[in-house]
């Protein structure tokens, strides 16, 4: 079993949260990071992704499954258990997400200054 996900995995100041572009949608990159070290249950994903609604997380996981980025495995147990895991295609996104996060970390000051200036002009 893999280690528990930290509820602070996505700090509000994390570059991922202010990324000016999304990989698929707002949550896909974060789900990819949550699944980096192995399969996770829906409830485990909700810990670091605490600001996403269950409906939106379910839609994101469904879209990722549709696109071949994750697999959904349902176990015939009582209570039922479902796990999500990255496919090789989904795992290939890890380098892309890391590059986007590095870019955001390097340019965070400029990005936030531009947003503030825009808000002042509007």
Automatic annotation (TrEMBL):
Identify the keywords attached in UniProt to this record, alphabetized. Answer: DNA-binding, Transcription, Transcription regulation
| Domain HTH hxlR-type stretches | 14-112
Q: What is this protein called?
A: Transcriptional regulator
- State the organism named in the record: Actinoplanes palleronii
């Amino acid at each position: 079993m893999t280690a528990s996900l930290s509820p602070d995995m996505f700090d509000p100041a994390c570059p991922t949260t202010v990324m000016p572009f999304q990989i698929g949608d707002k949550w896909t990159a974060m789900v990819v990071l949550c699944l980096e070290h192995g399969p996770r249950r829906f409830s485990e994903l909700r810990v670091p992704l605490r600001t996403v609604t269950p409906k939106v997380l379910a839609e994101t996981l469904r879209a990722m499954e549709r696109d071949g980025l994750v697999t959904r495995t349902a176990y015939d147990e009582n209570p039922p258990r479902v796990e999500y895991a990255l496919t090789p295609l989904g795992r290939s996104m890890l380098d892309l997400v890391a590059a986007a996060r590095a870019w955001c970390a390097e340019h965070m000051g400029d990005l936030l200054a531009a947003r503030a200036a825009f808000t002042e002009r509007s």
